[in-house]
Amino acid sequence: QVQLVESGGGWVQAGGSLTLSCTASGSIVSGNAIAWYRQLPGKQREFVARVARDGSALLPDSVRDRFDASRDNAKEVVFLQMTSLKPEDTAVYYCNIPSPTNWGRALAPWGQGTQVTVSS
Q1: For 83-88, what is the mean pLDDT?
Q2: Angle at 84 between CA 102 and CA 71, to 5 degrees
Q3: Over the stretch 36-51, which tens digit does the pLDDT of each residue have?
Q4: How far apart are CA 113 and CA 4, in angstroms?
């Protein structure tokens, strides 16, 4: 069964930075596009970034000027680099394999995610 594992979350003051990592067993990461999602308190999970197999990244307007996503296929890891963090970025962040037709829909079971808390 596909299992992706997120790490790198933590507590940071507003304006700070964090880099999250996403790994999985075998060649799951290098063999697939990987997307990042987040779930804010009391909200539905939302799409944050998608990194294609070639490393090209797409992010929504809401975070594009502050977040970036990349990957290292040799190390089977995908990153989400977050800068200028705001309290409204506080959420549990997840990675998953996005549906090719709807990036907002994920194909693998959800992992535990990694908590990011931004204080004002």
Answers
A1: 97
A2: 45
A3: 999 999 999 999 999 9
A4: 9
